[in-house]
Design brief:
Cytochrome p450
Length: 224
């Protein structure tokens, strides 16, 4: 998909959400978009662009990132048969595999932030209003925090990985993403005795440097 197609797709999604928002203002429903159009703070409601922007953010952030997390998990276990066997015999390792995948192959690799004030970091002065590119993927491979960072291991202290951000910018959807990945991996473990890479080569997505996932991930699933 080139930039022209991408912009056309975005415009179509904005129009789609605009129609739904208009319908919810007129009729209401028991859903999130109704909550957004009816939300009020200090006597003011959200403007149209804020409602549509929120809908777009939820659709993309809650879909693509979790899809890439699940794809990365499946690729890791498919290329490590011993790990699949471990998981089949000890389901308590499922959450550890998901957390280490978040660190090892962070679905969101980077994001831009604007400095709210002048700041000095590692002897570098960053003026207020500058755009800073924060690399979560690099932070999660920091050897001072994670020894032998290029190894996939289940014996790490992963409390400080930043795959979901940190502080006031911590991802609100993190619990849902973890739950979806856990349910998916357990479902595969219930149903399949083995998982291996397919004959065709896996293809990483290259449309954007922000996320890390697959465009194609052929797998062979064995029924036991």
């Amino acid at each position: 998909m080139d930039n022209t197609e991408r912009m056309r797709s975005i415009q179509e999604m904005v129009q789609y959400f605009g129609k739904i928002a208009a319908d919810r203002r007129a009729h209401g429903a028991e859903d999130l978009i109704t909550a957004l159009v009816e939300a009020e703070g200090e006597g003011e409601k959200l403007e149209e662009w804020e409602v549509l922007g929120f809908c777009m953010l939820l659709l993309i952030a809650g879909n693509e990132t979790t899809t890439n997390l699940i794809g990365n998990v499946l690729n890791i276990v498919a290329t490590r048969p011993h790990l699949w066997r471990q998981l089949r015999s000890d389901r308590s390792l499922v959450e550890m595999v998901i957390e280490e995948t978040l660190r090892y192959e962070s679905p969101v690799q980077r994001i831009a932030r604007t400095t709210a004030r002048d700041v000095e970091l590692s002897d570098v002065r960053i003026p207020k209003g500058d755009v800073v590119m924060v690399y979560f993927g690099a932070a999660n491979r920091d050897p001072s925090e994670f020894p032998n960072p290029d190894e996939f291991r289940l014996d790490r202290d992963l409390r400080n990985h930043v795959a979901f951000g940190m502080g006031i910018h911590y991802c609100l959807g993190a619990p849902l993403a973890r739950a979806e990945a856990k349910i998916t991996l357990n479902a595969f473990l219930d149903r399949f005795s083995g998982i291996t890479p397919g004959e065709a080569s896996a293809v990483r997505q290259t449309m954007t440097p922000v996320v890390f996932g697959f465009q194609q991930l052929p797998l062979v699933l064995e029924r036991g």
